[in-house]
């Protein structure tokens, strides 16, 4: 489960990065286009991390090795519909 903790720590870092980007836009340090570009990258990476964590948890639930879970391409993860 150490790997799960590392994934959660990375998610926390990215959420903080997202907050900082929004603050930078509000304070005029960056423009809207820069914020949107950077947010897009962060959002895709966040989706991949959450997907990986869900895969790992599902593997544990079904008695499989969570280390067999792999990061899927953002194009695949972004195409999911809830």
Please tell me about this protein's structure.
4% of the residues are buried. The protein has one domain (2-78). With 82 residues, the chain is mainly alpha-helical. Helix 1 packs antiparallel against helix 2 (32-61). The chain has helices at 2-26, 32-61, 74-78. The protein is elongated. Residues 63-82 are annotated as: Disordered. Pfam families: DUF2630. This is DUF2630 family protein. InterPro entries: Uncharacterised_Rv0898c.
What's this, in brief?
With 82 residues, the protein is mainly alpha-helical. It has one domain.
Strands, total number = 0
Average of pLDDT? 93
How many structural domains are formed by the residues?
1
Overall SS class:
mainly alpha
Distance between the termini: 26 Å
- The fraction of residues assigned to DSSP E strands is under 5%
Radius of gyration: 15 Å
H/E order of the elements? HHH
Broad shape? elongated
Question: Unreliable stretches, pLDDT < 50, 5 or more residues?
Answer: none
Please give a handful of descriptors for the protein shown.
single chain; 82 residues; mainly alpha; 3 helices; elongated
SSE topology:
Layout: H1 2-26, H2 32-61, H3 74-78
Helix pairs in contact: 1-2
